[in-house]
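Q: Give me a backbone?
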Amino acid sequence: MLRSLQIFGSLALLQAVASQQIGDIWQTTWDKNMLFTYFQPTPDPINFVTPGAIGSADIAIDDSSVYQTVYGFGASLTDSSAELLNNLKVQNPGSYWQLMDYLFNATDGANSAGLSYIRVPLGATDFSANTYSYDDISGDTSLNNFNINAAPSDVFSVLQDILSINHIARFHIVPWSPPGWMKSGGTMHGGSLNTQYINTMANYLLKSVQAFSDKGVPIYAIGIQNEPENSDTTYPTCDMPVATEAQIGLALRTLLNNDGFSGVKIIGYEHNWVDAANYPVQLMQQAESAFDGVSFHCYQGSVSDQTSFTSQYPNKEVYFTECSGTLGSNWWSDIKWYMDNIFIGSISYGSSSGLMWNLALNGSGQPSLPGTDSCGGGCRGVVQINSNGTWSVNQEFYSMAQASKAILPCDVGGPWGQRIGVSVGGSLGWALVVGAYKTGRISSGDLNRYSIVVLNWDDSASTSGNPQSVKATIEFRGMQASYAFPVGVTTLWWYAPN
């Protein structure tokens, strides 16, 4: 019996040591030679061995420090995005399903991004054909005329298709404006909510959750108001003071709990980093019991501003829910910024998601709401859909796909990745931006996956067309692996016991 235990223990030790090898790599390089390309190291996996000298950069993994769960990456399914996608489905169904699989298939090991966090506007935005809400009958405080089908049918068709591919996708809904008749000025374009309609607006949001559920789209989270500090008269917006959002949140929390939706999260703020120390903090001071957390956008401030909120409310959740690409910008410069600030950066500052703005637009950043002044330089979608039935993915896709691979569940129904501790040293440590993640398993007998997402932005030699790889060492539980990271983004992983 003792000998059997010794053999079993030796086998377990051998499994643990042998498993700590890097055998799977996804890569996107600055020169586009690799575009979210999967490969295995040749001729053999990269083993973790007894430590030697450190590389030019040294990545130290601390899996004893475990932080937030990351629930995925994605974008907003605006009316414009849904229209373009549905038109592609009609025009070229094979191409449509190929695209949808490439975007949303979250199966472990699939050649796809597994985008899993989708934001859906409630009513019109600056990317709608016209301005509408779900109840445009003035004075209908009982909301008898509430009608989710005021939204284009394309929206729900595409949502159902996403769910058919990715049943673990999360959906986060939020209005760009209350119905115009509830507001000062009587229009969805700019202005603010008349406070007499606070409870009516809470009921409007409850009905939205109910209606999506009835359409077969389960809601993970709901926001009270997109960008509550933005009032623009050329498209649906609403200035909403903290006190108003707080009161709607408190009323909505009670309504959701009483109607069987206690699991739906309420996420506040949904605006720029720059005011992280004020609006979201005051929102928690006034209605902490109602809000599960807050979300941020990229258009003003710095990602480090998230600390102004998380330092005061460390137990509240943080999401990053919007940033838009701009037409004509530089492909590689964008990827560097996205990884540093959102898809590694915002996660490192506590976010559980990383989202772009429009999921899909055409090559001109259209269609958009007639007359809107948003997107001054033209917004770029994650996907470009062309009138001839073809599509292509943009730099936003490659950035998100690299990050997504690190946190998707290993098992059907299994846990999502959690951020773990990581630090970077060495003479070229500055050249690497690194996020590290642990993905658990359903069975305690299965090995956890440990992943890193690495941006090498040492492109100082790019003027001569010859950026240099950074030869790095990776330290994990007293063992060491080595890898030369090219200029670009690399996602790699290995397996180890808990």
In short: The longest helix spans residues 2-19. Confidence is low (pLDDT under 50) at residues 1-18.
